[in-house]
Fold this protein.
Amino acid sequence: MSELQEPVAQPEVQTPSEQSGAEIAIDVLNELGVEYLFGHTGGAIIPLHAELNLRMRQGRKAPRFVLFRQEGGAGHAAEGYARASGRIGVALVTSGPGATNLVTPIADAYKDSVPCVFITGQVPSAMLGKDAFQEVDMVGITRSITKHNYLIKDVTELAGVLRQAFFVAGSGRPGPVVVDICKNALVGCDTTSGKPDPCAVIAREPP
């Protein structure tokens, strides 16, 4: 009678961790030491607000959101924070008229060399150029009044672009950077988010 053999342990299958774009964005903001977000809510940017509210209820780390009644005031508050603290000010608003209300504080930050990152919502990437509800070309509008601006169409671009935006805003002659994020990039999931990003530029505070 043959001896019973112990079953051979099978290696665990490692499934890639999935994070939504909103989760990735908040993680990167935490990584970069962002303490405050000044802004107003809206449909295109609501996934970020949902993630902020979830973390607040769970007692997890997240930047504090300071609500303003109008986006222009939020932009100027981000400027004031940057001037007073020496850190990078961050404003968070939705697409369309929400984003265009930031044009004056963006121009002011550009003329006065104030380091700010202005994060704006945008329609889903599949709707770009189709005159969708509240679609405005923020990259085109702000090209002449920013150090640089980005349009994020896919969740896999999110972490690297945010890091680069903070680096650009605070390095050399400081100034404003616009990051326009399509809604699908915030609600989509990135299965590679747990892996190191070889193209990531780590942001640093201005001296």
